[in-house]
Amino acid sequence: MFIDGRKVPEGTVIETDIAIIGAGAAGITIARALKGSDASVALIESGGLDFEPDTQELYNGESIGVPYTLDTSRLRYFGGSTNHWGGWCRPFEPIDFEQRDWVPYSGWPITRADLDPYYIRANDVAHVGPFAYNDADAWSDGGKNKPLDLPGGEVVTRFFEYSPPLRFGVTYREEIAKAPNVKTYLHSNVMEIVPTEDASSVESLRVGTLSGRRFEIRPKLVILAAGGIENARMLLLSNSVQKEGLGNGRGLVGRFFMEHPHIDRPVEILMTKPDLVAPYYKTYTKLNGTNIRAVFMFSDDYLRKNRRLGTVMTWYQVKEIRTDKDVEEKDPDPARAMEPGLLQLIHSTTADAADGPLLGMRYGSGCATEQSPNPDSRVTLSSAKDALGLNQTKLDWRLSSADRANLRLNMEALARAFGAWGNGSVRILFQDRDKWDEAEGWGNHHMGTTRMAADPRKGVVDANCKVHGISNLYVAGSSVFTTSTTVNPTLTIVALALRLADHVQQHFVKGV
Fold this sequence. Notes:
Blueprint: E1 2-4, E2 13-21, H1 25-34, E3 41-44, H2 53-56, E4 61-63, E5 88-89, H3 94-97, H4 112-125, E6 155-162, H5 168-171, H6 173-178, E7 182-186, E8 189-195, E9 202-208, E10 214-224, H7 230-237, E11 262-264, E12 267-271, H8 279-282, E13 285-287, E14 290-298, H9 300-306, E15 311-321, H10 341-347, E16 360-369, E17 378-385, E18 391-396, H11 401-421, E19 424-428, E20 473-475, H12 490-507
Parallel strand pairs: 1-7, 2-3, 2-10, 3-7, 4-18, 10-20
Antiparallel strand pairs: 5-6, 6-14, 8-9, 9-10, 11-16, 12-16, 12-19, 13-14, 15-16, 17-18
Helix pairs in contact: 1-12, 4-12
């Protein structure tokens, strides 16, 4: 059932077993998992069923660190940011969950093995293909496609699979509407999570609409699933009992904000034998009913041995090389000089016409890279107020010179691998700098602001996503990520949501 919060009578008190704040990928996944159970569920969504500018403006805020756009980074209506995501899916690697002594504040309290069964279920939820993200044989198309055999074991080929992309708010709308135990409150903004006097549990939710209506929801259990920035903001706004905000006794709420810096064309690759490049490297490729794309990543052994953070790199065809004029103009920086092999090949021919023999192919690239957790990269509250009278977000996103140097070194490893292979050359275009105070781009991936840790001195939620010290408050979504890894977060968001739903079913619903 869908209920317009603007039509709920002023001052109404609604009793429910479970309240889910936010109807994006995490919130809808949990509501679906709980449908038909013995627990009554209130799914609370700030927006309606379609985009509305006045609701979207509630995302406005202040950026004081690396320049960042807040108001368009997420979508604030039923389905959340799945209404505009690109569908890129891939699980995290086992090393991503490990405590790495070269990555400060790393180490999740769960392992990849803990998430494996939920990743498989998440594939189904997101309408993705088979769980074959590292299996080149699954995408060989009868032996036609082979990954590049780069020597050294440092650079490896892995695969992304693509959701259609699934619009959760459209695909699962009817299912949520018909669930007998789920009531979805639209145009309803949680203004505060109100705890008991000793802040040991949640007592109620103050809810308001942009039309001025105010009412209350009293749940037995609360799941906060409003997004990587809004989860932290909501905890900080919930300060009527704990002045520093709920779950923030150690000042960790909002800290460790992470994104995926995106770099356009960090390297250029010239190939002497372009027929070796399988189609799935160059663009989205449909195989066995699934859209996939091959990417370069770095092996666990390389990351451990060289104490590196992860990077994922895509590449795409730019131009055929038939004469030396087809090689991009000479770079004025000799440090970015290309391996000489291909240039020697070109100059050794007599072809000087555009229709001469094919000597190679020039490829561009793109990449996203992992960011080290940094407690000074954080979400706090601005003094400016939104239309509900609530403090807006203040984001201080910070990137480190060490992370930038890490990316440059990974590109050098890529160049070494191609050089040793002998069938291509790499020009590194991404330069190291003393500072990294501006991003070329980002993934709109908000992570880490309510991080997961077994020790309450190191994180906001525990291994089951329960807020430390509060008996009935859980957090869902990428804000619980301990590290950012290097791949898109949605599949892991859904997997963690399914795991949380199972935990709630086992430890709460049976007792309702």
